[in-house]
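STRUCTURE:
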């Protein structure tokens, strides 16, 4: 798998990869990532085809999902920190 390009976006980092059979597209924001894998063939053969697919509607949906993932990650870390602090003995 190799990087073949990036897609400019004000909020998301979008990286396009290439394999023999697919174009994985990675979206990143706030410490979380989402990857979509588009099969090569038909109307998807090069980077410009992927850029045409990754439109504003898709980016908005991905950003909403990444925000949910980030919220889950933060709440999980906070819960874990609380659980760990409960294991300590009380010292007077």
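SEQUENCE:
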């Amino acid at each position: 798998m190799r990087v073949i390009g990036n897609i400019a976006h004000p909020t998301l980092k979008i990286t396009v990869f290439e394999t023999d059979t697919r174009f994985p597209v990675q979206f990143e924001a706030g410490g979380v990532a989402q990857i979509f894998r588009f099969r090569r063939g038909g109307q998807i053969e090069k980077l410009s085809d992927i850029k045409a697919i990754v439109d504003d509607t898709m980016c908005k949906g991905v950003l909403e999902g990444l925000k949910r993932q980030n919220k889950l990650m933060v709440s999980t870390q906070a819960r874990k920190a609380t659980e760990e602090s409960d294991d300590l003995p009380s010292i007077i």
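REMARK: The mean pLDDT is 91.
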